[in-house]
Amino acid sequence: MFYLPKYIEQILYILEKNGYEAYVVGGSVRDMLLNKAPKDYDIATDATPEEVESIFHDLKKINVGKEFGTIILILKEGQVEITTFRLEGAYIDGRRPSWVKFSSKIVEDLSRRDFTINAMAYNHRTGLIDPFRGKEDLKRGILRTVGNPEDRFSEDYLRILRAVRFSTQLGFIIEESTYKAAKKYSKNVSSISMERITDEFFKILLCEKPSKGIRLLEELGILEIILPELVPAIGFDQKNPNHEMDVYEHTLCVLDNTLPIIQLRLAALFHDIGKPHTMTIDEEGIGHFYDHDKLSAEMSKEILTRFKCSNDLIQKVYILVKEHMNHHANFSEKGLKKLIRRVGEEEIFNLIKLQKADIKCSKKDATINHIIDREKRIMQIIENKETYDLKQLEINGDDLISLGFKEGKIIGKILEYLLEKVMEEPSLNDKETLKKLALKKFSNKSKN
Fold first, then answer.
1. Which residue intervals define the domain CCA-adding enzyme C-terminal in the entry (predicted)?
2. Which of 76, 85, 125, 292 could form a disulfide with 278 if both were Cys (CB 3.0 to 4.6 A apart)?
3. 39-43, 79-83, 86-90, 210-214: which range is least confident on average?
4. Residues with Cβ < 8 Å from 421, sequence gap 6 or more?
């Protein structure tokens, strides 16, 4: 059950050899008890930061957390955090303790942690240290705080989002008093920095069944704080025979049926977020949502900007959402090439995955055969290295300038024209042939 990599065993051994206690703590202990391979290992010790620095003087270190007791060792296997046992004073801003002092007792250190399942320590010499019965909670599938839940959540409101995340990741039930305290303090999530909220929210979205996390956020009153744009979708009847679920249930279904790729999960979450604002009812009482894809794409951009996401991620999600409805289109080969160009070769298959999930979650008897066929055709275009982008042309701007064309917008116009021709007839992608086409079409107007 408890397997530690050699480099972690070596760090523990060196600390113990120098007369200090040292344990693997937190999530790595939890994961080992769940028979999961930890992603990383954190170590707690009674050695002070200065003593840790001295003991590992020959290793590269990061000491930006030194005032809080943390020294990070840089090893070829990865980074390892070594933190001195510590006690904390009252939290005055819902995030940071008023004071931190070092301790000589591991149990005191574990007592300041958030949940029982994260408040365990282990080394080969002592075995498992579990003062708050975290192992029992793991067996029972229960998430509870260490000590009074109101104290834990009022110390750091982010712990409420962490409770949602752990419950979603592990499939655990939040213990009743912990749940009630989370609901009581949920409004204070608004005081957390957006960067911290986004980090936890994205971890929830990347869980195996993210819908559980979204439902928990809704129940606790957090969804309306961090993602109010989704609230109108709850219970929103689409009044359309092609949709058996309301917008919210459909969205959660699509979310659960996509791979844990962040831009794909975000696109699944936002793809219909504009529907409640675009609904029209025809004479037969059937609901329609014209241009909801465009509005949803714009809304996704605004939301992710608020979430302080990178421009690259914002753009990827925007394109996936904007293009998600084109599964109704009957694309020619040229049309598919234009689609690949718009979406990008690295994202086109994420769009296909989104469309498959969208269709599957619309109606029980809906078929995705046309999307599977489209996927095969796109694969063939890419595998055959057929031209769909300017950079694949056997001619460039310098070649056109050498023919006597002026620098400026005309160069782009000519290249776009040539790309259109090559997408229609791939055999035209030859430098000399393209030069002739350019001269024939544009020489009278655009040369010196």
1. 289-436
2. 292
3. 86-90
4. 428, 437
Q: What residue ranges in 3-85 does DSSP mark as E strands? A: 22-25, 42-45, 60-62, 70-75, 78-84
Helix (H) or strand (E) holding 128: strand 127-129
The answer to whether the Cα torsion of 49, 50, 56, 62 is positive or negative is: positive
Four-residue CA torsion sign, 102, 104, 106, 108: negative
**The whole model's pTM is what?**
0.92
Q: Which of 70, 100, 81, 87 is nearest to 24 (CA)?
A: 81
Q: Where are the alpha helices (DSSP H) in 123-230?
A: 134-140, 149-155, 158-170, 176-185, 194-205, 210-220, 223-226
Place of tokens 């009743």: 176
Query: Over 90: is that where the pLDDT of 65 sits?
Result: no
Calculate the CA dihedral of residues 5, 56, 109, 80 and round it to 10 degrees: -40
User: What is the C-alpha separation between 9 and 22, in angstroms, rounded?
Assistant: 10
Band (pLDDT 50/70/90 cuts) for residue 191 is very high
> What average pLDDT does the structure give for the chain?
94
